[in-house]
């Protein structure tokens, strides 16, 4: 099973584990070991601990170098959106770690294979295993290939509550009136529409956004307004 994952990693990301036992350990849950008394390997918890530290450091170093003009607040905001449960779960699914994890029967029946919290653990354990097997340089190259590239794609925006961020920024010196107004609604197919929403502060327009619902359009408008204010 893990040989197939090894082949997939080689084909897709040019990653070859020298010690495939580390890869197996990163994808083995404690409940699986408890139900298999003859199993001689370890569960992923220690590798998860290591991987969490590696991810925090690697992401901080990358952002520090990538955005030399950003202040600590902006760097922290982006880092938090990147090193969190839903982001790591998505990366685990992209690598198909959910297919290969060895689970106990109870966990399998409860749907743990699709649980974001478990997939987060698997991602961190995988990074810990890769770090031990090949070192920091390989980890950074891998993260640039699969994780950091998603910054420019706007992947991590979905994990940031821009409406709250915008409200906090605009009300930093006192109360203001923030409004979201629907400007347009256009059909794009039989079942879909595109909404356009404008966000304003004290009746002063800040930005417009579009989306497949008014909620999505509001989020887009808030993101554009907040990022524009930050850039200014």
From TrEMBL:
Residues 6-135 form the RNase III domain. One of its GO terms (biological process) is tRNA processing. PROSITE patterns: DS_RBD, RNASE_3_1, RNASE_3_2. The keyword Kinase does not apply. It catalyses: Endonucleolytic cleavage to 5'-phosphomonoester. One of its GO terms (cellular component) is cytoplasm. It holds the Pfam family Ribonucleas_3_3. Residues 161-231 form the DRBM domain. The active site is at 52, 124. Keywords: Cytoplasm, Endonuclease, Hydrolase, Magnesium, Metal-binding, mRNA processing, Nuclease, RNA-binding, rRNA processing, rRNA-binding, tRNA processing. Homodimer. PANTHER family: RIBONUCLEASE 3, RIBONUCLEASE III. Digests double-stranded RNA. Involved in the processing of primary rRNA transcript to yield the immediate precursors to the large and small rRNAs (23S and 16S). Processes some mRNAs, and tRNAs when they are encoded in the rRNA operon. Processes pre-crRNA and tracrRNA of type II CRISPR loci if present in the organism. Belongs to the ribonuclease III family. HAMAP family: RNase_III. This is Ribonuclease 3. It comes from Weissella bombi.
